[in-house]
Amino acid sequence: MELVCPAGTLPALKAAVDNGADAVYIGFRDGTNARNFPGLNFDEAEARQGIEYAHRAGRMVFLAINTYPSPAQWDKWCAAVDQAAGVGVDALILADPGLMHYCTQKHPRQRLHLSVQGSATNAEAIAFYARQFGVRRVVLPRVLSLAQVRAIIKRVNVEIEVFGFGSLCVMAEGRCTLSSYVTGESPNMSGVCSPAKAVRWEETPTGRQSRLNGVLVDSYGPGEAAGYPTLCKGRFAVQQNTNAAHDAELPHKPYYALEEPASLNVLDILPQLMEAGVVAIKVEGRQRSPAYVAQVTRALRAALDACARDPQNYKPRGDWLAALDKVAEGVTHTLGAYHRPWQ
Amino acid sequence: MKLSLGPILYFWPRDTVLDFYRRVADAPVDIVYLGEAVCSKRRALRPEDWIQIAEELEAAGKEAVLSTMTLIEAESELGVMRRISENARFTVEANDMGAINMLAGRARFVAGPNINTYNAGTLAMLAAAGARRWVLPVELDRNTLRALQAARPAGLETEVFAFGRLPLAFSARCFTARAHNLPKDECGFRCGDYADGMLLSSQEDKPFLVLNGIQTQSAETYNLVAELPEMKDLAVDVARISPQSSGTFEIINTFHAVIDGTLEPAAAPTRLAPHIPYGACNGHWYGQAGMNWIREVGAEAVFSAMGGLKRG
């Protein structure tokens, strides 16, 4: 299985290559990709440098143009596709069907991957992108169980890449507009979720509060660790259920109604993913530091090598898990949807 | 402009559903979307039941459309989608690219609100695959719609989600079961306890979201009744109303009266107010946060966000 690691900067790309990534994925410094954060990402010159660095080490660079351009943005997004093809990326990661069509017409030999934002969660949807645009690899949304991943791989003839580590989207990617409902900006349109400019922290007599465009996302007691107010990771309250018998089941105080802040970590199931025929494991986090990239890449490289050597006796080592937990979001890690009970 | 009724997004008892569509047959809607679009475990009605409702509505002069689910993961769900797609009689609303793969080149279809149609390139691709109508994704604004209308392929109809709680997200996880501390596999169909979904409030008791099984909706009701004249100017063909447990027929009548010209658009919000339990929103239409409420006063838009009244 390939190890595909994130890079938001040239030092992060080098860290990924130096620590054993088979491929590094990057984006341009604008709204054309789903990690459109201030101070992050690559201009054309940096992309060229990064590609040269990776290719010299025999590694690949993928570039994500995975937001959905509006008519007003269309020309700029097409220019980004041209630019990516021009600098010689090994694969272009796209989500928008219109843009994929453009790419197949203009750059017929460019290798295409379907971004997780493309939201293909089943074999028929994957077949559509393969047939229409010659997509060679699909990144699966983080909503599928291991059994479902296995069933999809049996039915499709494109490569399947899955997320292995990083922050967890609890919603089907590409079909979540929680962020634009609250802030006007979403991953699909603007390449951001719960954007930092809409965040406000407030100290109150009862503790610290986090708000997103005025909406109270969470509040923390004295000494309680506070997390970034991503909408789906806030604590909210449910109302009473008129069905008295079932009302007793409800939490009658604010709780993580959608998702706890936790990191996805698939170290426990690497042999199963390999046996299922997964081609690549992806690490989330282009917005994270070179130190994060180095640490995660090193741990996953060691785990993947151990798994490939002897899958029967593979067991995640304590020091790998400790290294990953240290940089994880929240205090716990989870198998996410791969693990049936989570659903 | 035609009026459509979207699929029932909640889990209502079988008899409630049957009664509801008996009333729909006499209501002034032109198009009715049918079927379970949210969770494959909800099987109070079988596919044959939906076909029968479709036939009855067709006999009453409506266009009946069968909607597919939005999040398709399991093989069994693909099977249901295939059966719907291969029905030879009724148009299908595709809510996943998988459904479009089954329909492309074989039958004319509707590209639903959960197909990511953001630009003319995608619109052209959908038309070439056989779409006869497309629904504007809920997060898109009127300026984007205007540009898409200008580039729209001939013969393709445009529909806009115009009233109801906004479907915002879909997950593998069932949030209703999670709230009840039950595993999804043994959910006990708790979503059946909530005819309009389960209200989720912020820690300062402001209604925020509605949990509807694996679907998350807005608590506020998206209401574009005052924007109907503008939609008409933009050559929108269909305005969609999303069913709710009470008031749906009053909402249909109000929209119909505005489209008909018998009710001033400005008078409509008062009539709709009793059917909007947690406030209205229309921000997406104006390119703002969806939860905002914008009232156009001359050239100036006045809007109130959850944080209070502002001027913009």
UniProtKB/TrEMBL annotation, chain A:
| Superkingdom per UniProt | Bacteria
Q: What InterPro entries does the record tag this protein with? A: Peptidase_U32, RNA/ubiquinone_mod_enzymes, UbiU
The UniProt annotation places [4Fe-4S] cluster binding at C169, C176, C193, C232
- What are the alphabetically sorted keywords of the record? 4Fe-4S, Hydrolase, Iron, Iron-sulfur, Metal-binding, Protease, Ubiquinone biosynthesis
Tell me one GO biological process term.
proteolysis
Q: What does this protein do?
A: Required for O(2)-independent ubiquinone (coenzyme Q) biosynthesis. Together with UbiV, is essential for the C6-hydroxylation reaction in the oxygen-independent ubiquinone biosynthesis pathway.
The entry assigns this protein to a family as follows: Belongs to the peptidase U32 family. UbiU subfamily.
Q: What is the protein name stated in its UniProt record? A: Ubiquinone biosynthesis protein UbiU
Origin organism is Candidatus Muproteobacteria bacterium RIFCSPHIGHO2_01_FULL_65_16
Q: What is the lineage of its organism?
A: Bacteria, Pseudomonadati, Pseudomonadota, Candidatus Muproteobacteria
From TrEMBL, chain B:
Name of the protein described by the UniProt record: Ubiquinone biosynthesis protein UbiV
- What's one GO MF term for it? metal ion binding
GO process annotations (BP): ubiquinone biosynthetic process
The entry assigns this protein to a family as follows: Belongs to the peptidase U32 family. UbiV subfamily.
Q: What does this protein do?
A: Required for O(2)-independent ubiquinone (coenzyme Q) biosynthesis. Together with UbiU, is essential for the C6-hydroxylation reaction in the oxygen-independent ubiquinone biosynthesis pathway.
Q: Which gene is annotated as encoding this protein in its UniProt record? A: ubiV
Q: Which organism is it from?
A: Candidatus Muproteobacteria bacterium RIFCSPHIGHO2_01_FULL_65_16
| Transmembrane listed as a keyword | no
The family database entries (HAMAP family) matched by this protein are listed as:
UbiV
> In what pathway does it function?
Cofactor biosynthesis; ubiquinone biosynthesis
InterPro entries named in the record: Peptidase_U32, RNA/ubiquinone_mod_enzymes, UbiV
